[in-house]
Amino acid sequence: MTVKVKVERLTKIFGPNPQPVLEKIKDGFTKNEILEETGHTVGVYDVSFEVKEGETFVIMGLSGSGKSTLIRCLNLLNKPTEGNIFIDDTNIVKLAKKDLKQLRQQKLAMVFQHFGLLTHRNVIKNVEYGLEIRGIPTEERQNIANKILVSVGLEGWENKLIGELSGGMQQRVGLARALANDPDVLLMDEPFSALDPLIRREMQYELLDIQSKLKKTIIFITHDVNEAFKIGDRVAVMKDGMMEQIGTPEEIIAKPQSTYIEEFIKDIDRSKVLQAKNIMFKCSALVSVKDGPRVAVKIMESNGISSVFVVDEQLRLQGIVTIDDTIIAIKENKGIADILRQDYYTADPETYMQDLLPMATNTKFPLAVTDENNKLLGIIVRVSVLSGLV
Amino acid sequence: MLPKTMNDFPESIKLNWGLYVDNFIKWLNTNYGEVFDAITAVILWFMVNIEAFLQWVPWWLVIAIIFVLGWRARNLVSAFVFSSLLFVVGTFGLWDHMMSTLAIVLTSVVISLLIGIPVGIIMTYSTRLDAVIRPILDAMQTMPSFVYLIPALILFGLGKVPAVFATTIYAIPPVIRLTSLGIRSVPGEMVEAAQSFGSSRWQLLTKVQLPQALPTIMAGINQTTMMALAMVVISSMIGAKGLGMEVLIAINRIDIARGFEAGLSIVFLAIIIDRISQGVANKYEISK
Q1: Contact A340, A327 (CB under 8 A)
Q2: Cβ contact A130–B197 (<8 Å)
Q3: Using CB atoms, which residue from A77, A115, A120 is nearest to B211?
Q4: Could you say which of B187, B198, B286 has the minimum Cβ distance to residue A133?
Q5: Of A175, A31, A48, A49, nearest to A109 (Cα)?
Q6: Which of A84, B50, B169, B196 is the most interior residue, by most CB within 10 Å?
Q7: Which residues of chain B neighbour A194 with C-beta distances below 8 Å?
Q8: Is residue B231 part of a domain?
């Protein structure tokens, strides 16, 4: 996939004279020392990352870690002190005023923590705002706005004033306003942080749903680990204006690069993040339907197991045989096909660990992970699921 | 005991500040007399037309209009009270004087808004300009209002025009201040949101900042109008006809009845203008 947004060694320092401060950071002074000595605040320091087209990239960090400063640099609401930002190979840091306006109108849209809605306008006029700025005729922009409002579930609310809406509704308007512009890149600055937990979860699923249809490039800011891991294809963790680690949620959980991140992910519920594909292993112990029962016994014996999955030539799962049945089959001169059992569970690789739990408690066999063609991808031994219970 | 010389400010370091201002105004008058004559002509033309119009409108129609305005801006009871008050002024025999006063107030308010709102907007663009204009506004408001009458007299002669000039100077600070305050109080995230969609400065101003600041600006307009009404009474001293003139004559003749009626008429006018403009301002309040 092509790279949509590329950030190169970005630094943002707030204050009247940032250049000498830049030297100071390079000399190793900390954020607090610099603030005390020069009165300048280091928002972001030396941050680099790439976001691919269609990817949801989450930037996570505690308040004051510079994540909001960073996302405001991406549409130049904050002017970077140093570094480059490329969107489709254009370095936007160097854009002239006119080109910047055009970039904001056509390629970027932002959703704000406290919504940033125009309270003197009604819902549909808010959604139309970006289109209005671009000079799109009234009728056309109303049509677009109406369609978008339907897709975010605000049909029938077009003429309400913003003050009459609940927080969740207001953020739907904020999202609709951003989507109406059909931006390439959607910037979301803690969009769900001001909402109560139930509404927040609902909005998260809605965003995932919308994203699965629209496939926008999304850069999403949050301080909530669970939200980050639920929404993000990749997650970047920030601390004190710098990047600590960038990776997929599974990578970060499996290999946290610092104690800071370990602290961060301590209270995350693994069963909601880890999927079947993360905990399965490719199994070498398999029996083909063409093999005889004696081969099956041999394989079980050499691997120290008392049951084994049976596949065909294309690795398609056919069933499972146990050691007891196999021994009887040898005595009675039957083939493998005669003793195949089907009372095992299969899961697809995207199944979350929390959904594997009931299967694991109900069976004596390992769980089989298969794709849509019933091809066996791997197996999950019950202990790796059930250990999550303690 | 201190020597006596310590008690008195030394006369040797006396500076004639007042004289400089005096010379400046006179210099203005001799060198740019035509400019002020032209301004006088424009304002006078404007005023004469407004006054002629106000006096041409039948008295019952004015009362009816005030009734409707009061009703729309507030409620039926207020509408009834306002039109009764106007009727009472009519019974004092001061209807034409009231219309003269109203003409000066309206002209001054229009001029104040034409100058004040743009100045208030410009102030928000530059903190330096803000720092310069703010003390000037303070001075304009604290300077005893009579003082404005003197240069106004020299530059514009006697009558209505210097009254408008002095009234405008006295009444313009609130609309400037509150326009500036209103725009500065627009939530930062709202401005950022507008910018993030690529709004130009003009679009930001007209589509976001001014509509958001409108309730505050309306409060400024209300205050400006009330101050204009207060000043217009004082400016009767330089020959502006109207209710103020009636008060002035009453003082000179120690005529209690005439003074009471004229004074009460001013109060009524003030109540009506204040309540109606406040009602209008409240209508612009945005439900947050």
Answers
A1: no
A2: yes
A3: A120
A4: B198
A5: A175
A6: B196
A7: none
A8: yes
Asked whether A1 and A37 are in contact (CB, 8 A), the reply is no
Question: Which residues in chain B touch residue A77, judged by CB atoms under 8 angstroms apart?
Answer: 192, 195-196
Q: Which domain holds residue B215?
A: 21-283
Residue B54, domain CATH: 1.10.3720.10
Every domain of chain A and the residues it spans: 3-107+183-268, 277-389
Contacts of B288 in chain A (CB under 8 A): 119, 163
pTM of the model: 0.75
Q: Domain for residue B205, yes or no?
A: yes
Q: CA A58, CA A227: separation in Å to the nearest integer?
A: 9
Output the DSSP codes for A106-159: HTEEEE-TT----TTSBHHHHHTHHHHHTT--HHHHHHHHHHHHHHTT-TT-TT
| Topology at the third CATH level for domain A277-389 | CBS-domain (3.10.580)
Domain count across chain B: 1
Minimal Cα distance from B206: which residue of A? A133
Residue B154, in any domain of the structure: yes
Shortest alpha-carbon distance between residue B205 and chain A (Å): 12
Closest Cα partner for A128 from A156, A157, A148, A154? A148
Please tell us whether the domain made up of A3-107+183-268 is placed in CATH 3.40.50.300.
yes
Nearest Cα of chain A lies from the Cα of B4 at a distance, in angstroms, of: 53
CB contacts of A118 in chain B (<8 Å) are 190, 193-194, 207-208, 211-212
Per residue of chain B (288 residues), give pLDDT as tens. Answer: 667 667 778 778 877 888 888 888 888 888 888 888 888 888 888 888 888 888 888 888 989 999 999 988 888 898 999 999 999 988 988 888 888 888 889 889 999 999 999 999 999 988 888 899 999 998 888 888 788 788 788 777 777 888 888 888 889 999 999 999 999 999 999 999 999 999 999 999 999 999 999 989 988 999 998 999 888 888 888 878 888 888 888 888 988 888 899 989 999 998 998 898 888 878 777 654
**Residue among A104, A114, A134 whose CB faces B196 most closely:** A104
